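pasting for ref
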Amino acid sequence: MNIIEIENLSFYYQADKPVLKDINLTIKKGEWLTILGHNGSGKSTLAKLLIGLLRAKSGTIRIDNEELNQNTVQSIRRKIGIVFQNPDNQFVGVTVRDDIAFGLENLSIPREEMIERIETYAQKVSMSEFLNKEPHALSGGQKQRVAIAGILAMHTDIIIFDESTSMLDPKGRRMILDYMKTLNDEGVTIITITHDMKEAVLSDRILVLKNGEVLKMDTAANVLKDKITLEKSNLELLLPLKVINRLEEKNIKNEELRSYLWQLSLTG
């Protein structure tokens, strides 16, 4: 079952400078899709279109069989949430507790249920002891966990992570990626927006964007094998792939080493 369907989607700020050009995409319920592209490829614009922060110039977006428009945007936002690169831009509450409660208040969730959800999802992201802290006093990883808790508490079926690990140290990054995997295993549809190949290989499928157009959409393994697309995308290749390419250029045949490097590239 498709939970997201995008047909002939285009967007531009200036008519002669399209940001997205005729995008077609379907995402299955419970799938993990990565939208991969260099800065300026249009991937964050696509994320904003999906949650109704921008309005498409042409084409349609359907979320859970409901077409996104000005009449449906509020109900659709109950189904899809986003965690931005800089969580500071999402904080509105004086405390972590207030911030998680904000989305629930907008949904008119009863107070007793709201308190229960805040406690439950703060615990899920290991932030229970910080509920009375000011969000801006937290570390980058802790802020991202608060942002995730706020989305989870709203019971959205889809979560978009827009470059949400790019400002984190390796430990914080791994923690967030592990939590994405846990959410996906629980049936949440995950969309990650990134230019980092190490993150992209963890997903079920990869959509490669360049200059607002789709270069390729396939499984992570098939995208990694497509040397031409990767070169066109101007993305930094994973080190194991660089070594494989170098071996091929030198006509060095070592299938055991090649197999090991290939598996290493798929681990993120």
